[in-house]
Design brief:
The chain has 146 residues and is of the alpha/beta class. It is built from five helices and five strands. Bound molecules: ligand CA2.
Length: 146
Amino acid sequence: MKIIIINGPNLNLLGKREPEIYGSQTFLDYFATLQAKFSDIELHYFQSNHEGELLDKLHEIGFSFSGIVLNAGAYTHTSIALRDAIAAITTPVVEVHISNIYAREEFRHHSYLTAKCAGIISGLGLKGYELAIQYFKLDLFLNNPQ
Ligand code: CA2
């Protein structure tokens, strides 16, 4: 099973700035713990600050992977292009936000992506990424019980 975590703009700063909102762990450290926890999954990670690169990655893996965990950062609130890409691919996407976007500024309350995603996890910190992976594992198991 291949699952990818895709992080958008500024998420490369995790653990380095604004720890009161986003925590103090770097994403690469957290990703290593996820790989250890989910050693039965081929877990990939991609981060970009560029909208076009995020689109290219969705196109590249969006027909072959089992699941995409997407934190599109601020593009969540602006990008019709990312919404269209999620709608065009066949791999299901779970939208994740570290902070609770509904408890923050009004402009963060709307996501262009949610309607095209399987679901959204927001406000549970980095744990949200792990929960999204658990969802894909459970969903695939329920659909292919053996
Ligand atoms: O809560 C989330 O995960 C967000 O997607 C994070 C975005 C924000 O624009 C969304 O509204 C909610 C911002 C990512 C910025 O990441 C930083 C990490 C560390 C230090 C500074 C920024």
